[in-house]
């Protein structure tokens, strides 16, 4: 799958005479993060928001330096401690977008807590389509 993704991106870039991308939004980590870094332009921005692959990526500091990349980490949970008002405003805005139909949410499994282990296993088998 990783090869298909990077090949598809390379074909897209080539069709538009682009050498690479300026921003990498990475919710996956793992091998896909490693492969997609090859597509980054000099001076690119990397936004790390999670590790759905369960593998934390390693980006060597010398590569970041030579390519003049900027790496941004974003963990929503930290806002509860450091800037709770920003988190509340953001959630309120997201909910308003849902009410207006600007964004939709696909619910794969909706369950009560008596069977969390079964559903945790199902999420893992289904390649982590969501969060529990």
Order of the strands making up the biggest sheet:
1-2-3
Rg, Å, rounded: 18 Å
Mean pLDDT reading: 83
Provide the CATH top-level class of the largest domain.
Alpha Beta
The percentage helix is 40-55%
Distance between the termini: 24 Å
Judging from the principal axes of the Cα atoms, what is the shape?
A: globular
Number of strands: 3
Beta-strand fraction estimate = 5-15%
CATH topology of the largest domain: Rossmann fold
User: What class do helices, strands and sheet pairing give?
Assistant: alpha/beta
How does this structure look, described?
The protein has helices at residues 2-15, 30-37, 61-66, 76-82, 84-100, 116-125, and strands spanning 21-26, 40-48, 70-73. It has 132 residues and is α/β, with parallel strands linked by helices. The two termini are 24 Å apart. The chain has 2 domains: 1-74, 3-Layer(aba) Sandwich (Rossmann fold); 83-132, no CATH class. The chain has a 3-stranded parallel beta sheet, covered by helices on one side.
Task: Produce a short descriptive summary.
This protein folds into 2 domains: 1-74, NAD(P)-binding Rossmann-like Domain (Rossmann fold, 3-Layer(aba) Sandwich); 83-132, no CATH class. The chain is 47% helix and 14% strand.
């Amino acid at each position: 799958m990783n090869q298909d993704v990077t090949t598809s991106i390379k074909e897209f870039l080539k069709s538009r005479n682009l050498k690479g991308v300026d921003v990498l939004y990475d919710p996956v980590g793992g091998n896909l993060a490693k492969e997609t870094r090859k597509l980054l332009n000099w001076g690119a921005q990397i936004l790390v928001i999670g590790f759905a692959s369960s593998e934390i990526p390693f980006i060597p500091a010398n590569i970041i330096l030579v390519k003049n990349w900027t790496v941004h980490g974003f963990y929503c949970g930290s806002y509860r401690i450091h800037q709770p008002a920003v988190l509340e405003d953001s959630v309120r805005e997201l909910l308003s977008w849902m009410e207006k139909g600007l964004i939709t949410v696909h619910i794969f499994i909706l369950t009560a807590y008596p069977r969390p282990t079964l559903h945790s296993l199902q999420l893992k088998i289904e390649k982590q389509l969501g969060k529990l």
